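TOKENISE THE FOLD
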Amino acid sequence: MNETTELAPAVRSILDAARRREPTVEEPLDVDARSVSHALSGAVDEGYRPVVAEVKPTSPTADGRRDDDAVALARSMVAGGAAALSVLTEPDHFGGAVDDLRRIREAVSVPVLRKDFLLREAQLDAVAADAVLLIARFLGDDLEPMIAAARERGFQPLVEVHDRDELARALSAGANLVGVNNRDLARLEVDLGTFERLAPAVPADVTLIAESGIGSAADADRMLAAGADGLLVGSAIMDGDVEANTRAVTGA
């Protein structure tokens, strides 16, 4: 990781907590993963927008906290047409838990992404998931070995990028599942144009997911028109009736 990269104080706090978090497992996982790419394309084939709905109790950029049972939330999202799920497992800033992901993955048939801030290989082994988030900016030179370590365990690594340099590093490291985060990590501002600027540089054989700032069906269609194969949607779904909100974005 490049320590000189400008980051918002909230993001630095998240990273500090991630560094302190020690793995609690002894052996590497061996996961039989459900395909995120196939799930997204399957949603399109059925006439739905390909949405990865996010179980996110809270976040540094959200007001309040949602304490509904995680499995109930996940089932509502799937009932609303979500092609896949993202589950926060970061406990200190997002209210997540690895046990929530474990229970959700047992309860649904769609792929489940583990969303956390993973900095060391051993942190991959906290819980089985179908995919894991790897943030290019945070991993720096460790990105390629973390991708390899994730794949050795059967995970599909979703590599998150924010600019052209990070995208180039992700593609060079062999990423074939890439997420473009529309939220700037320095000012925490959202700009859907970020995805639109980066998408043309992504090869056609890479599954591309637009992340952050998708608050409506119109936003979703804008990202799909720009080349998104999938849409990661959190706050717009979690704020209110989860199943109805999911349907509003997926069109199910």
Remarks:
- The CA atoms of residues 69 and 227 lie 34 Å apart.
- The domain at 29-250 is CATH 3.20.20.70 (TIM Barrel).
